Amino acid sequence: AAGVIQSPRHLIKEKRETATLKCYPIPRHDTVYWYQQGPGQDPQFLISFYEKMQSDKGSIPDRFSAQQFSDYHSELNMSSLELGDSALYFCASSLRGLGLAHTSTDTQYFGPGTRLTVL
Amino acid sequence: GEDVEQSLFLSVREGDSSVINCTYTDSSSTYLYWYKQEPGAGLQLLTYIFSNMDMKQDQRLTVLLNKKDKHLSLRIADTQTGDSAIYFCAGNSGSARQLTFGSGTQLTVLP
Questions:
Q1: Is the pLDDT assigned to residue A99 strictly greater than 60?
Q2: Which of A17, A37, A65, B7 could connect to A43 by a Cys-Cys bridge, CB 3.0–4.6 Å?
Q3: For the residues of chain B, what is the DSSP string, one character each?
Q4: Closest CA in chain A for residue B98
Q5: pLDDT mean over B14-35
Q6: Using the beta-carbon criterion (under 8 Å), do B97 and A102 form an inter-chain contact?
């Protein structure tokens, strides 16, 4: 079965540079989530999109922005990178459907992650 | 917001059962999940339980949910060395059903 695809898998940047992370959800999934996992930490929610509209924001810095495109893929744009941005960035997708009630289709499936290292 | 707690480490012998525990504060999660993460890898969904269930069994995995005590557990029967990983519990109580994760339990399976 098709899974969530993330690219690149590894990225090395210097301080103050910019980075763009891409996520391709499972086909027919309508919701994308971005999470950040620092070393030895649990994943923290950054932002989510449902049907190409932003649906909620978590602890996402103002330096970061994201969007979901017409083909449902999503990009996380990170500017003015700091050393503390070094982390694993996960994208997850789910099928929320009509969103009338919580259903098992809310289950989030995670991509392999992008490991960002800021030097 | 939701607070989810787990014990950090667990060691078991190969062939024994492992029980990983999780407590949470927000009872509005409709689903509670268990994810497995191997070193440097992504999050693999193991199983989930609907909040109005007490128990769910899936092959070697048994999930128990005590809503009164806000306690969730994952039992792995006949634990193997390949089960060594970090296990995260998570709830979907956010407005966008985003997941709030526990701190993760590092399971080490000894031969």
A1: no
A2: A37
A3: ---EEE-SEEEEETTS-EEEEEEES-TT-SEEEEEEE-TT--EEEEEEEETT-SEEEETTEEEEEETTTTEEEEEESS--GGG-EEEEEEE--STT---EE---EEEEEE-
A4: A45
A5: 91
A6: yes
Q: Which residues of B touch A44 (CB under 8 A)?
A: 101
How would you classify the pairing of strands B61-66 and B9-13? unpaired
Query: Which chain A residues are closer than 8 Å to B95 by Cβ?
Result: 55-56
Instruction: Please check whether residue A31 is in contact with residue A95, taking contact to mean a CB–CB distance below 8 angstroms.
Output: yes
Amino acid letter for position A90: F
Cα separation values, B38 from A88, A92, B16, B69, B106, Å:
13, 17, 20, 29, 10
| pLDDT (0 to 100) of residue A98 | 59
Q: Note whether B103 contacts A58, CB cutoff 8 Å.
A: no
**B88 to chain A: nearest residue by CA?**
A42
